[in-house]
Amino acid sequence: MRKFMLSFLAIFATVFLTAHVAEANDTLAKIKERGYVRIGVFSDKPPFGYVDKNGKNQGYDIYFAKRIAKDLLGDESKVKFELVEAASRVEFLVADKVDIILANFTHTKERARVVDFALPYMKVSLGIVSPEGKVIKDINELKGKKLIVNKGTTADAYFTKKHPDIELLKYDQNTETFGALLDKRGVALAHDNALLFAWAKENPGFVVGIESLGDVDAIAPAVKKGNKALLEWINNEIIELGKENFFHKAYDATLKPIYGDSVNPKSLVVEGGKL
Length: 275
Description:
Order of helices and strands: HHEEEEHEHEHEEEHEHEHEEHHH
Shape: globular
Helix content: 40-55%
Strand content: 15-25%
Strand order of the largest sheet: 10-9-11-8-12
Number of strands: 13
CATH topology of the largest domain: D-Maltodextrin-Binding Protein, domain 2
CATH class of the largest domain: Alpha Beta
């Protein structure tokens, strides 16, 4: 009886895994049959992903998402944007609510255990922004004070692990997070430096006192774990787009109008998936 049960379980596991792989590899066909690709993006993280005053999705990630739709389905409008929060990005992939996440998603070892990352198209590190006159220039200045972060972000993970003595105020949405800084609920805010540079330029009275913190991280698209066909397609797309300097064009169209000449594109842009 025991041998029979072990044999049955082995057969069941093989059938389950085979079906799972077949389903994942069939995603490209499903997308084409559906007629549009579902891409998770931010609604409140300008200039990377946001909804403008006319209700249109805009930003660096949106620019890339539209090109994916064009090259995959022949029309850049054949994309359905699903709005996500930082902490819900993994959930949206696992629950099959989206095909791809393009929400300024940093590649980490922890996330790579549950989703599959494609090649990078951007690089970033953490920064800290604080009010003029009370600029935080060193992490030691945060001890005994409140630091604002987004839940589920690399900033949240970094300070929780590296500096547990610093009190964190955590919020889901970027609007809440930056609102907390404006309301002086914390002395500073930690986030991706690329975002902070843009925010500080649009909000006089704030300074990015710590421009780079921790490691330089890769920003990359992500798909559901085991979705090899779609992952391979995206990797090939990024490599091909690199041949035409696509991501520098995306930078010029979406980020340069915000940064001006204050940021070197080479410090952020990745072409062809090569860091």
